[in-house]
Design goal:
15 helices; single chain; mainly alpha
């Protein structure tokens, strides 16, 4: 059970760490145009298509959900969308490697620790072996994130010294950490969105949806909120930068190819939370640790892709060893969290 949950979270992390590759291939469009088309597929089309396939009567199911539940789920999705936007700003100030490590570190911390504190259950974690092992796993995860961050800073120094690349003049560690803190807090609202949408998942099982897919209709509501935030911002930038013509092929850009690449990226991005929603159903009593696993696997796969694409080829061997060590430590943390779930599920006396 736990092993399947970890595997599903790994698949979600792989999708999250991979989706940006097609976006990198988009040519001649402004960032906001590619991001909005990507968002239409990832936050609207893909969730609705998948939910329609696994939920017998999606429209009827959502109509039966209490308005308050829909409202809170949508609101947390909207707040999560703000975190996604400011996450990009943190990377602008810190660089990609360090920005990912710091922002996702805050996401993992707040998304995992705050729910049990809010529920008044944090003290209970300190009173049993499985809870202590879980906290140890979180500590290992944060240690791995710190190592990835150190490697990211070393990478920027190496590339700057080599005259190849480096963090641009906008680099500001203080601003970057503050923005990353805000992004982490807001992005962690995804964890709260799933909690707010729990009645939707429960209703889905009553409608005959299997336990593995019960979070699929929840994602429809959450991602609608995230789409609202991102769409408003992208449209604002389209107007400000006069880039709305991208959608109509008003430039020499390969319009159809760009649409296809953005669509592939969007569907791939959606898979991260589809697998995340499936994984949470297999994590037992400590399903709140799912968010940490999700963040950990994103860091692992995004950095592995960075290595594969040669983003670290101009760095010193010591820097490359640092990032590999960070990835290994983060992966180790997932094993520790898995052990904690096993201990929590084991009958007393075992």
């Amino acid at each position: 059970m736990v092993a399947l949950g970890v595997l599903l979270h790994a698949l979600g992390g792989f999708a999250a760490g991979t989706f940006y590759l097609p976006i990198r291939k988009i040519k001649g469009w402004s960032w906001e145009s590619g991001w909005l088309v990507n968002g239409v597929f990832s936050w609207l089309i893909a969730p609705l298509v998948v939910a329609s396939l696994v939920v017998p009567d999606l429209r009827g199911l959502l109509a039966a959900v209490p308005p308050a539940t829909l409202g809170w789920t949508y609101l947390f999705g909207l707040l999560w969308g703000i975190g996604g936007l400011t996450f990009g700003l943190s990377c602008r100030y810190l660089g990609l490697s360090l920005g990912y490590a710091v922002a996702l570190g805050f996401c993992a911390f707040f998304g995992t620790i705050v729910p049990p504190i809010y529920d008044g259950k944090f003290g209970a974690l300190l009173g049993n072996t499985s809870g202590l092992v879980l906290l140890a796993g979180l500590a290992v995860c944060l240690a791995g994130i710190v190592v990835c961050g150190v490697a990211g800073m070393a990478k920027e120094r190496d590339l700057t010294a080599a005259g190849t690349h480096g963090v641009e003049g906008e680099f500001s560690f203080f601003k970057g950490v503050l923005v990353a803190l805000f992004a982490g807090v807001m992005s962690a609202c995804m964890s709260f969105a799933f909690r707010a949408g729990a009645p939707i998942a429960a209703l889905a099982t009553q409608h005959g949806v299997s336990d593995l897919w019960k979070n699929t209709p929840v994602l429809v509501v959450i991602l609608a909120g995230g789409f609202t935030t991102n769409a408003l911002w992208c449209v604002f930038l389209n107007i400000k930068n006069r880039s709305a013509g991208d959608y109509l092929g008003c430039s020499s850009a390969p319009t159809l190819t760009n649409y296809l690449l953005a669509a592939i990226a969007g569907v791939t991005w959606y898979f991260q939370f589809m697998f995340y929603g499936m994984g949470t159903t297999k994590m037992g009593a400590y399903d709140f640790s799912s968010w940490t696993l999700h963040m950990a696997f994103i860091i692992v796969f995004s950095n592995l892709w960075a290595i594969r694409l040669g983003e670290w080829k101009e760095t010193r061997p010591r820097t490359l060893r640092l990032i590999l060590a960070g990835i290994a430590i983060v992966f180790l943390s997932t094993l520790v969290v898995g052990v904690s779930n096993y201990l929590g599920a084991a009958p007393a006396g075992e």
